[in-house]
Amino acid sequence: MNSKTTLTSKELVEKAFRKEKTGRIPINHRGFSSKAASYILGHEAFVGGGIQRWREAKSLLEGWHDEFLERSFKDATEISIATGQDLMRCAYWRFNKKPTRCLDDYTFLFEEGPKETWQILRFDPESEQCLVELSYPRTDGEENLRDRIREMEKTAATYRPTEEPIRPELRAQSLYPDNAIETGGGAVGIPHDSSLWLEAMLLHPEIVEAYIRSQVEMARKMIPFRVQNGFRFILGGGDFASNSGPMYSPELFRQLILPGIKEIAAICHAHDAYALFASDGNLWPVADALFGESGIDGYYEVDGRAGMDLTRLRRSYPNLTLIGNISSQTVAQGTPGEIEAEVLSCLETARTYGGVIVGVSNYIQPETPPRNIDALLKTIENNRG
Fold first, then answer.
1. Contact criterion met (CB below 8 Å) for 168 and 90
2. Domains and CATH numbers, the chain
3. Chain Cα centroid distance, residue 23
4. Which long-range CB contacts under 8 A does 128-134 form with residues at least 24 apart?
């Protein structure tokens, strides 16, 4: 709790979802690269994207997985507290599979099951990203997708939620009771690992429909369990757009994807939870369906660089809570003055309309200069109220 307000972080976030204005603007940054977080915390930070997958695989191979888990939790929560966030992220990317071989310092081989299922993880330390791909990629197209659907349907049918996947959230809830804690459980959309999925939308829409149904069935079990454990902010969605617009037509979105999003939102509402949807990119071609008809409560990763203007969104969709809109590209490549202007604009929209949680809409990138990180954090703290 800050001395400038009597509201806890959890109360600030709740008020944002009720569209109530507050003197102090709530904050949530979508994520930090390890390099950016390490600068802020003053030590190597176990957060980030692909780098965390590589670290986990490395820790499993070398026998220090418990240390990896502990450091990951502590650094995720510490960076949230250090940067004044009200909606806390306490878990970053995972890859909980033990490699069978290390091919070099940044490449692991996973020889699990039939040869056709073997995987390779390749990590690029400069970008902190990694690629996980099949060692022997299949080329049989449609049947490959149908096999994947059959496996998902089996998983969804037998799935029983446990505390294991949400141990970081449960621990954070205990340690930081005044913070709102985010959790997953509402993912819906097609994968990006193959163009076959885009082809299937046109040629075999029943495959995509079955895939979405399996995601919904998993959510039908997962969301009530997480709500019972005290979590109400259910993250979901899935990237499907670039700066020029969605990867597929608004008609295909309505036909194949929107029904699943509606069901996820209805499940959340039946259990007194909020449904949040994320995607980068220009979503205006599907905005009425996604932000109006779907029933979702929140939209995060609001991408200003792709034209998703915060004020226009608040005016157009008054029932929607918005999270983000400070561009990670501006923070990485802009001047301190440009960063300050973007932050102040977002804070002003939040103050004028309510229903906005301000923050960087995507990862603070590893190439971000320290002076820009300082400008971001200083401007927020000095002006959020």
1. yes
2. 9-99+140-383 (3.20.20.210)
3. 27
4. 128/33, 128/34, 128/35, 128/48, 128/49, 128/50, 128/51, 128/366, 129/49, 129/50, 129/51, 130/49, 130/50, 130/51, 130/53, 130/54, 131/50, 132/53, 132/95
- Tell whether the model's pLDDT for residue 110 goes beyond 60: yes
Q: What does each C-alpha distance from 80 to 34, 87, 89, 134, 146 come to in angstroms?
A: 13, 8, 7, 35, 41
Q: What's the confidence (pLDDT) of residue 139?
A: 67
Residue 4 has pLDDT above 50, yes or no: no
- Phi then psi for residue 98, to 5 deg, are -80, 125
Q: How far apart are CA 277 and CA 281, in angstroms?
A: 13
Residues forming a β-bridge with 383: none
Q: State if pTM tops 0.85.
A: yes
